[in-house]
């Protein structure tokens, strides 16, 4: 059953959209991090690419909170694009932020995305890829992320992180200085850390639901944004998220690329199979 997003309340400053698939343990760590956000005026939309009874049970207490919603859909293969579009359509805020259910946001995630927002621009951040050891700790003790987000402690952990095969750890050294020094180069959209105005997402009709494989759906968003004159704004070293370790699985990636390439040939920046049918 879907939790309808109410339109009676005054809209929040931001809608944080989180795509998930069954992993309640990782989501628990993420939601605790959202509890510690420095900016509190946002709604949380969990958009699930299935209808997991475990997820319903886990979110029962959360759904009693204001500005917290849970959307589901039948488990009919990988349909993240559909799940994202349904959440975008339901979002009440003018500004949208996107996370994946296995990525823990920095405590300033909402505040800094809002502070960096510009009309006609989409913000692109990056993630620290945590290794198996640190991921296991965070799954069992989510409050530990508060220590990892401390830059001095993070620096002290660089050697053990190296042995845990943590990747892109430099992204976790978040600071305005690092952003000024190394963050000017544009980076592409990753679905676990980007934001944009809802009107800009509606202008391209959201995610292309013809993309039924895993991968390339984010780069598809980017080239369609850019095709309508919007530009990327990197927040790579300003707003990190921390990705919990798991094995990567991709299927039908080549199919997605073929769909995208056909759309590019005819400059179809506004996808046909998107939000507007809702």
Ends: how far apart? 17 Å
* Main CATH class: Alpha Beta
- Average pLDDT, rounded to a whole number, is 90
Architecture in CATH?
Alpha-Beta Complex
Percent strand: 15-25%
Q: What's the CATH topology label? A: Spore Coat Polysaccharide Biosynthesis Protein SpsA, Chain A
Rg, alpha carbons? 18 Å
Multimerization status: single chain
Specify the biggest β-sheet. 7 strands, mixed
Segments where pLDDT lies below 50 for 5+ residues? none
Structural class estimated from helices and strands: alpha/beta
The number of E-state strands comes to: 10
| Spatial arrangement of strands, main beta sheet | 3-2-1-4-8-6-9
Q: What is the N-to-C succession of helices and strands?
A: EHEHEHEEHEEHHHHHEHHEEH
User: Looking at the structure, what is the overall shape?
Assistant: globular
């Amino acid at each position: 059953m879907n939790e309808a997003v109410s339109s009676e309340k005054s809209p929040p400053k931001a809608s944080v959209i989180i795509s998930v698939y069954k992993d309640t343990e990782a989501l628990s760590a993420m939601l605790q991090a959202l509890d510690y956000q420095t900016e509190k005026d946002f709604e949380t939309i969990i958009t699930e690419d299935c209808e997991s009874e475990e997820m319903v049970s886990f979110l029962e207490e959360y759904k009693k909170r204001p500005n917290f919603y849970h959307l589901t859909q039948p488990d009919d293969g990988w349909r993240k694009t559909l799940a994202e579009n349904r959440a975008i359509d339901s979002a009440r805020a003018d500004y949208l932020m996107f996370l994946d259910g296995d990525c823990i946001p920095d405590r300033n995630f909402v505040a800094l995305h809002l502070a960096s927002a510009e009309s006609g621009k989409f913000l692109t951040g990056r993630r620290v890829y945590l290794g198996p050891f640190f991921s296991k700790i965070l799954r069992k003790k989510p409050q530990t992320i508060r220590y990892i987000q401390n830059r001095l402690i993070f620096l002290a952990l660089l050697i053990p992180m190296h042995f845990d095969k943590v990747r892109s750890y430099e992204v976790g050294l978040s600071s305005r200085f690092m952003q000024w020094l190394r963050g000017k180069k544009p980076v592409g959209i990753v679905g676990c850390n980007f934001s944009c105005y809802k009107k800009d997402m509606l202008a391209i009709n959201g995610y292309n639901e013809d993309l039924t494989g895993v991968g390339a759906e984010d780069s598809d968003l980017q080239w369609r944004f850019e095709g309508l004159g919007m530009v990327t704004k990197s927040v790579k070293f300003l707003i990190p998220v921390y990705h919990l370790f798991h094995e990567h699985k991709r299927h039908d990636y080549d199919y997605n690329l073929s769909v995208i390439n056909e759309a590019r040939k005819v400059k179809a920046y506004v996808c046909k199979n998107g939000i507007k049918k809702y």
